[in-house]
UniProtKB/TrEMBL annotation:
UniProt similarity note: Belongs to the universal ribosomal protein uS15 family.
Localization, UniProt: Mitochondrion
Name of the featured protein: Small ribosomal subunit protein uS15m
GO terms assigned for molecular function: RNA binding; structural constituent of ribosome
Alphabetized InterPro entries for the sequence: Ribosomal_uS15, Ribosomal_uS15_bac-type, uS15_NS1_RNA-bd_sf, uS15_ribosomal
GO CC terms of this entry: mitochondrial small ribosomal subunit
Lineage top rank: taxon: Eukaryota
Gene3D superfamilies listed in its UniProt record: S15/NS1, RNA-binding
GO biological process: mitochondrial translation
Listed PANTHER family: 28S RIBOSOMAL PROTEIN S15, MITOCHONDRIAL (PTHR46685), SMALL RIBOSOMAL SUBUNIT PROTEIN US15M (PTHR46685:SF1)
Keyword field: Mitochondrion, Ribonucleoprotein, Ribosomal protein, Transit peptide
Length: 215
């Protein structure tokens, strides 16, 4: 037995354990009894034991396997019909099934990861690249087929914001540089025009000489 002072000192010297943030995930709505993607469509699964079903369900699955099931659900949302694998919103520009669904699931997973690890610059860069790629593809879909674009954003719960127009801060140095570039361009165009006129006259002289020889 030790003195109360020593016990208090030991309790004070213990390291403080930080509580982890309870961050909601976009995979929380998946039911745990749902089977994994590789075993969901097998006919034998209807006759197997309950213990085997539990082992092959999402209750025992990793985050990667849950992400596959979630991506498949998003693909089914944007697909027009069960046999439609060729629509733009499903395939995407790279001819992949579920292009928008794959990007959306990946972006949301990276967002949750960055909430837990905000100093992970590599995954932050990857997430921004995927967001930019998805914005470009959605912008093209918006110009080509607005109804399909609206349905895709609604089904995948995407808030599309068009890119801001590029604006340059006009300074005196930039104006002088622009005027110099315009002047150089104009002088170069004059030199090219003189060379073209010289070449045209040479061609006309050759053609005239050829006609005189034939006569």
């Amino acid at each position: 037995a030790c003195s109360p002072v020593l016990q208090a000192a030991r309790g004070y010297a213990r390291p403080v354990t930080k509580k982890k943030k309870d961050i909601p995930s976009h995979l929380d709505d998946l039911p745990p009894t749902l089977l994994k993607k590789d075993y969901a469509n097998l006919p034998i699964m209807s006759s197997v034991d309950d213990v085997v079903k539990r082992l092959l369900s999402l209750e025992m699955a990793s985050q990667k396997e849950k992400l596959k099931v979630k991506t498949q659900q998003l693909v089914e949302k944007v697909r027009r019909s069960p046999s439609d694998n060729g629509s733009f919103e499903v395939q995407g520009k790279l001819k992949r099934e579920g292009y928008f669904a794959i990007l959306t699931a990946k972006i949301r997973t990276l967002e949750e990861h960055l909430q837990r690890h905000p100093k992970d610059t590599k995954n932050r860069r990857l997430m921004l690249m995927d967001v930019d790629r998805r914005r470009k593809m959605l912008g093209y879909l918006r110009r080509v087929n607005y109804s399909t674009f609206e349905n895709t954003c609604k089904q995948l719960e995407i808030h599309y914001s068009p890119p801001q127009p590029y604006t340059r801060h006009v300074t005196k140095r930039w104006l002088v540089k622009k005027a110099l570039c315009i002047k150089v361009f104009q002088e170069k165009q004059k030199l090219k025009a003189a060379e073209r006129l010289k070449q045209r006259r040479e061609w006309q002289a050759r053609a005239r000489a050829a006609r005189e020889q034939q006569e």
